[in-house]
Amino acid sequence: MSLYDIIFYLFAAITILSGFIVVTSKNIVYSAFSLLFTFFGVAGIYVLLGADFIAIVQILVYVGGILILLLFGVMLTNKITNVDIRTGTIHVLPGAVAVGVLMGLLLSAMVWTEWKTQPSETPVTTTVTLGRLLITDYILIFELLGILLLIALIGAASIARREQE
Amino acid sequence: MELSNLSHSLNLLLPELTLSIALLVLVLFDLIFHHDKKIISYVALIGLLATGFFVINQFSLSGFAFSTGNESYRNFGMITIDSFGSFFKLIVIVASVIIVFFSLSSDEIKKTSERIGEYYALIFGMILGMLFMISATDLILIYLSVELLSLSSYVLAGFTKLRERNSEASLKYMIYGSVSSGLMLFGISLVYGMTGTTNLYMINSLIQIPHLNLFTFSFAMILIFAGIGYKISSAPFHFWTPDVYEGAPITITAFLSVASKAAGFALLIRFVKITFVSYIDTSGFWQLIHVFDWKTLIVVISIFTMTLGNFSALWQDNLKRMLAYSSIAHAGYIMLGLAVLSNQGLTAMLIYFAVYLLMNLGAFLVVMLIANKINSEEIDDYDGLGYSSPFLAASLAIFLISLTGLPPTAGFIGKLYLFVALVDANMIGLAVVALLNTVVSLYYYVRVLKHMYLTKPETAIPEIKTSKPNTILVLVLLIPIFIFGIYFTPLVDLAKGCITILGL
Amino acid sequence: MVTNYIPIFLVLLAASIFGAAVVFSSRIFGPLRPNKVKIMPYESGKDPIGTTNERISIKYYLVAMLFIVFDIEVIYVYPWAVEFKKLFAQYGLFAFVPMFIFLVVLELGFVYIFMKGGLRWD
Q1: Which DSSP string corresponds to C63-84?
Q2: Which residue of chain A is at minimal alpha-carbon distance from B116?
Q3: What is the pLDDT of residues B21-39, one digit of tens each?
Q4: Which of A46, B118, B357, C20 is spaced 20 to 30 A from B112 at the CA atom?
Q5: Which of B144, B90, B98, B86 is nearest to B123 (CA)?
Q6: Residue B213 is nearest to which of A112, A151, A152, comparing CB atoms?
Q7: ipTM of the predicted structure?
Q8: Of B263, B292, B321, which residue constitutes the final position of a domain?
């Protein structure tokens, strides 16, 4: 077992354990906080895969942004009807069967597929390549993203703004 | 990307560019003209007409735009312009223009008139997403355009905030939507993991020699279909449809049921055709590469979709909800055309879509005009409408008869071409199922007619007067239904000329 | 290969150990004698008012949305900026125009929210 493997299993364990807490915790705030570790573990795996920029994005956007929005969501909706926001477990058996089948499918897909791989070489920083691709090959995607974000902004304003009484 | 290549690409992208600029202008005008909101509707209309002009201009054009890869190795583009795409774009634009007119006379939208700028900006976002969906040939662009369409429609479904149902519709739409787009994204990632490319043409050439794991590939295809199936509300992914259609403002419901569905179907057809067809034989049948059995999947899903839609519609008392189920059923019928996997089937689908645009929008328009006055969409409130407001009742009746598919309406022509395509492909069993479904659908459409003409209302209801522009709008949708019902050659010729999907 | 990142992992490890040590050492070494005043939430010397799980205003949501959108904007600007010198040498003005359009579109959204009073705090 090389150092690489050890680090990988470390991050995988962090991801899975905290992910497990996210779905099993009864208190939604605890779930949100353990989601932090899930995102963090995923970022670690990205680094191991040589996707350094994506790892930073993962931390910057997911931990720094999405998670905050999630916690805001909890605080926005807390105590609407004097019911605590708690998660419960229902339909255990059908849920377990469905998850089992899905996991079987995914595992068999993962194991038996000949994935397209690239010989591992010294990882170069991906940032520069990304910057180049954004304004050459993927220029259309890039500009469309701008419009998508604009629509997201307008939509958020439309949802969040209070109506004039 | 060289500059010559860029200008060539931009030239092919004129409708989308026009629409994007119109979107930005709309947002700007919304800021500048706070007081006179009327102007925004006109700006929207002008933007749409300009886009429509460029789309019509493109009918003779075809080509690839925005190719990726470096100079030594360049593959096909992210966008493909062809007559098939132009046909669907025209359908989307026509539907959008009609929706703008709808919005001008909808009471729900009038009540939120100070937010009309946002409304049109989001609608333009939807249209832009649809246009890209129709011509995208790269999985990243496909995902992004689906997302652009979804994002705008989530907000629009709950736009008016007048009733609780509104927000419910928005929330349900978003939750279902994010799950299915997540599934689609996962499917895309699997495909990329196996082939190392996101370009549909590249995937096609890579799977010609099947050396990849078919199990995983099929799994990925089903996941991608989940994303598209959600947009066209086909059977296992249709759960959102009734609630969203009922809760959303009726203009948005009408738009979702026609334009969004058209874009979804265009995406599905293009995806199947470009990625999986190895060659087209002399009689116009598409021969698939033996990696994934699209035919079985689509046959099963279309039977499932139309049966479920029709049988659920039988019990609906709310007209919007009934039309929602009927639109699910129609998605099933249209899918039959794809199940044939031939040029003839494609022609039938195009004809059906052109007709479906008219009759479905028409039905929603009349329901809206009636709801504006009596403030209800319940079927019991339609009692005696045939005598109190003969014009609206008669036009609703005609739209519904056309949706059933009875002659001499255009709906009959749409169904006829579909069934002929099925029979020509020796899929008679499927044609029989579809025919039986049509008989079932007759029941719930005629039930509305019965309420309007045969049931006596408990209290006398006043006549619902329509303003002149609205009458004209109804007639604009109504008259072609008769024209195409009798003199359908131009429509069929147009559809036959628009089956070119660039590829191979 | 991944050995390049080992210093970062070490820093992470050191940071988490230090953080945990600071939080838990006082619990371990210090005497634990709680009383009512001591376990009160700390609000800079004032007595706390009300409960902590109040519903907060929807306005925060808009701010958070704005934050995420501009977070994402930065993510796209950054790799472009890193490579800009070379891109400018190769493509000239066309290295600049796409980013300019992207930024204009996004700032339009910001101006829109600002003018519509989305950030007004009354």
Answers
A1: HHHHHHHHHHHHHHHHHHHHHH
A2: A158
A3: 999 999 999 888 877 778 8
A4: B357
A5: B98
A6: A112
A7: 0.91
A8: B292
